[in-house]
Automatic annotation (TrEMBL):
It comes from Zwartia hollandica. The keyword Metal-binding does not apply. GO terms for biological process: fatty acid beta-oxidation. Keywords: Fatty acid metabolism, Lipid metabolism, Lyase. GO terms for molecular function: enoyl-CoA hydratase activity. Its EC number is 4.2.1.17. The keyword Lyase applies. This is enoyl-CoA hydratase. Could possibly oxidize fatty acids using specific components. Belongs to the enoyl-CoA hydratase/isomerase family. It catalyses: a 4-saturated-(3S)-3-hydroxyacyl-CoA = a (3E)-enoyl-CoA + H2O; a (3S)-3-hydroxyacyl-CoA = a (2E)-enoyl-CoA + H2O. It comes from the Bacteria. It is an enzyme of class 4 (lyase).
Length: 258
């Protein structure tokens, strides 16, 4: 039987996936990425889950792609097997929100995985970086594209070219992470935040995610039009009727997620 590199559990309506390869600082090998993809797809398909959290260990969210596994690969090995595309991009198909709860190292593919999540909560111990340049390659899972979008060209370029790490304070100042949390509160805080999201109308949450993500893929006028069409479609939802009626009646809404 293959090792379990990703632990999957539920906390109410929150799906929690914990990267579990501590001895290798959660280095992201193929089996781990397969298991992470399977865990994400299972929660996405589960009507009882409204938000997903991915976390690692105290020492590392993930220290990158598995260098030991990659070191002898040839061009044909990576090209033919679609290395990275095959199982790293599953997360982009997930329609429910995914939060990265990062403590310790998020380097290389670990930083890229965190950036593929919808937002990052950072422990005060978090360290982010794209150190691939130090091992004679470049980021391979979106780092050169998502980091500049998150922190601007100058800082992203410096980090990608030097491989230096940024700590949680710098990451928050630069807009890479939404908030910093004390390390011993990280998981609790991430679950609380995910629980708040999971308590909202699920279709509204999915539309909000889709619409914010559109900001990266379209012009402003196209994005605003996309948002307006989704906003209009909210009025076909039972949850819109319930949410607005509850506000007017000064009570808590009971969403049916439809
Ligand atoms: N791949 C494979 N194994 C890794 C690893 C990685 N990315 N990162 C750490 N490990 C392993 C180490 O080999 C070591 O294993 P052993 O105990 O069997 O020797 C174990 O994890 C602990 O690591 P260290 O002893 O190095 O721990 P440290 O505290 O001294 O240093 C660190 C921590 C600074 C994170 C250091 O481990 C490090 O620099 N890791 C590599 C970071 C890196 O280069 N990441 C980019 C990978 S390439 C990539 O991700 C491509 C892409 O874009 C998809």
């Amino acid at each position: 039987m293959s090792e379990i590199f990703v632990l999957s559990e539920t906390r109410g309506r929150v799906g929690l996936l914990t990267l579990n390869r501590p001895k290798a600082l959660n280095a992201l090998n193929d089996q781990l990425m397969d298991q992470l993809g399977a865990g994400l797809l299972a929660f996405d398909a589960n009507d009882d889950i409204g938000c997903i959290v991915i976390t690692g260990s105290e020492k590392a969210f993930a220290a990158g792609a598995d260098i030991g596994a990659m070191k002898d690969w040839s061009y044909m090995d990576v090209y033919k097997t679609e290395y990275i595309t095959r199982n790293w991009e599953t997360i982009r198909r997930i329609r429910k929100p995914v939060i990265a709860a990062v403590a310790g190292y998020a380097l290389g593919g670990g930083c890229e995985l965190a950036m593929m999540c919808d937002f990052i909560l950072a422990a005060d111990t978090a360290k982010f970086g794209q150190p691939e340049i130090k091992i004679g390659v470049i980021p391979g899972s979106g780092g050169t594209q998502r980091l500049p979008r998150a922190v601007g060209k100058s800082k992203a370029m410096e980090m990608v070219l030097t491989g230096r790490m940024m700590d949680a304070v710098e990451a928050e100042r630069a807009g890479l992470v939404s908030r910093i949390v004390a390390a011993d509160r990280l998981l609790e805080d991430a679950i609380e935040t995910a629980t708040v999201i999971a308590g909202m109308s699920l279709p509204a949450v999915m539309m909000a995610k889709e619409s914010v993500n559109r900001a990266y893929e379209s012009s402003l006028s196209e994005g605003v039009l996309f948002e307006r069409r989704l906003f209009h479609s909210c009025f076909a939802m039972a949850d819109q009727k319930e949410g607005m009626a509850a506000f007017v009646e000064k009570r808590k809404p009971t969403f049916k997620h439809m």
